[in-house]
Amino acid sequence: MRRFVVFIFFLPFVWGFDLGGFVGQASNNRGGTYGVFASLSFFPFTRVEIEGSKFFGRSEKQISLNGEVGIGLGGIHPYFSVGVGIDTGDSEKLTLTRITSTSFFTSTGAGIKFNIAPMLLKMRIDIRRFSLGEKPYYRAYVGLFFSI
Q1: Which residue, among 77, 64, 57, 82, has the nearest Cα to 145 in the 3D structure?
Q2: To 5 degrees, how large is the angle CA 78–CA 80–CA 86?
Q3: Considering only Cβ atoms within 10 Å of each terminal Cβ, which end of the chain, N or C, has fewer?
Q4: Measured distance CA(62)–CA(130) in Å, rounded
Q5: Class of domain 12-147
Q6: Distance from C-alpha of 12 to C-alpha of 7, rounded to nearest angstrom
Q7: Is residue 123 packed enough to be buried (19+ CB in 10 Å), middle (13-18) or exposed (0-12)?
Q8: Predicted local distance difference test score (pLDDT) of residue 133
């Protein structure tokens, strides 16, 4: 019952919901990447997002929880994001034994969202810096999403 009451309390503060996917390119020989995301807007300027991604041709996968702050300027919405996440992947040794590694990371980034079909279909262009171990890397991507 307590969870239901908390849900009902926060429901009026939800401003919108987004669901979409993206493709992009990462630095440090990580190659291409693709993924999906879902986010909730709270009030006009803040958003919480969960994102899952995978690299083409690699076993490495990531899931992250991000916070965004942005403003709406007509059909263009610039934003800044920060997040935390988990990176998992297999690495093969000379003995061909697979070892799964899991690491935590932080990310910061910025981007712009554009209206394609007002109030429904949007596009986003984003660049993020991931601090994963000793070698941070960057990811640039473009995505389409539905906004309700």
Answers
A1: 77
A2: 135
A3: N
A4: 11
A5: mainly beta
A6: 9
A7: middle
A8: 78
**What is the per-residue burial (b if ≥16 Cβ within 10 Å, else e) of 45-83?**
eebebebebbbeeeebebebebebebeeeeeebebebeb
Name residue, tokens 């171990």: 133
pTM score, two decimals?
0.80
Provide the pLDDT for residue 49.
95
Distance between CA 79 and CA 103 in Å, rounded? 27
Residue 99 CB coordination number (10 Å): 9
Predicted local distance difference test score (pLDDT) of residue 5: 42
CA nearest neighbour of 106 among 128, 125, 89: 128
In the prediction, which pLDDT does 117 show? 86
